[in-house]
Amino acid sequence: MATPTTPTTPIHEMRAFNRFYTNLIGALDYSRHLYVPYTLTESRVLYELARSPRTDAADLRSELSLDAGYLSRLLAKFERDGLVERAPSADDSRRQRITLTARGRDAAELLDERSREAVGSLLADVPPADRSRLAAAMRTVREILEDGRRQGRGKGRRRERRADVTLREPGPGDLGWIVQRNAALYAAEFGWNAEYEGLVARIVADFAQDHDPHLERVWIAEADGRPAGCVMCVRDEVPGTARLRLLLVEPDARGHGIGDQLVTACVEFARSAGYRELTLWTNDVLESARGIYKRHGFVLVAEKPHRSFGVDLVGQDWRLPLHERPA
User: Are residues 15 and 99 in the same domain?
Assistant: First the structure.
């Protein structure tokens, strides 16, 4: 026979918190709360597809713990509305690859914007001195529950938690963060000197001083609410050509696909802005970054040894035609 819960039990406290928080964020009437035509579940599916552009239906079902039939009906609705495209996976024809269309990306961006505005309005009522304490408490709740769930499922096996990643435009201080983290990481990992920091500072300063937001953009990747990566898309000297610059992912955030998300955002933006080609310059020692570029269809077109940043390197030029999508 079940024992009734009392106000002092963790079960009571958790249920009380669930009722409080779902009411606070408008989860019971999500579409009206954010002024969007999507339920909370539909919004979450669009969010997952936006942050992982090439997603299999099976992976999506597992990530969100959704019933297979329910997810299939939801995706069919999205397909009728022109939000997604479904096709057999290139890796396994038995699996279904789900990709957002341009309309789907617009819908996901609108949802993200409305969600950020809603959370911002909530935080506006919290004293600034309490906001970091609130964020830390939320991280603690999430980490404790996730650790408990992993231990229950895996009998002691440890698995890296998937980071909650969003891409956003830079806010105050973010451009300075790009300079600082590039300089610190490349010094620590490759021994590059202050010459590289100077180069990054000039690139960032040029963008901050004069850029066309319709043709140039910076993305900051946030993982669990903290900056975890960045990339820039700027105009090249060659007409009709954009240049990808300063791709970076923090060491403790690697392995979650953040680099792929940043490059995808850069490629899609350059294509939608009307550029014919996207180029980049990198060095042969940056093996992980070169792997990302290859996956997105970039082709190595030139190499040249040079000495820069206090070390001997081999510079590489890569290019991606934008008139057609890579297979």
Answer: yes
- The length of the chain in residues reads 327
| Domain residue limits at 115 | 10-125
Residue 155 counted as domain residue: no
Element (H, E) at 59: helix 57-64
Q: Count of domains in the chain? A: 2
First to last CA, the chain: 59
Helix (H) / strand (E) containing 205: helix 194-209
State residue 48's pLDDT score: 86
**121 shares its domain with 246:** no
Chain segment 93-130, per-residue pLDDT in tens: 778 888 889 998 898 888 888 878 877 888 888 888 78
What is the DSSP code string of 111-160?
HHHHHHHHHHHHHHTS-HHHHHHHHHHHHHHHHHHHHHHHHHHHTT---P
Which residue numbers in the chain have pLDDT < 50?
1-2, 5, 155-161, 326-327
Residue 103 and residue 194 in one domain? no
Domain match, 86 and 180 both: no
Identify the residue whose tokens are 């030139």.
Answer: 302
Same domain, 120 and 169: no
**Cβ neighbour number for residue 227 with a 10 Å cutoff:** 20
pLDDT tens for each residue of 231-249: 999 999 999 999 999 999 9
pLDDT value for 158: 42
**DSSP classification of residue 161:** P
* pTM score: 0.55
32 assigned to some structural domain: yes
Does any domain span residue 303? yes
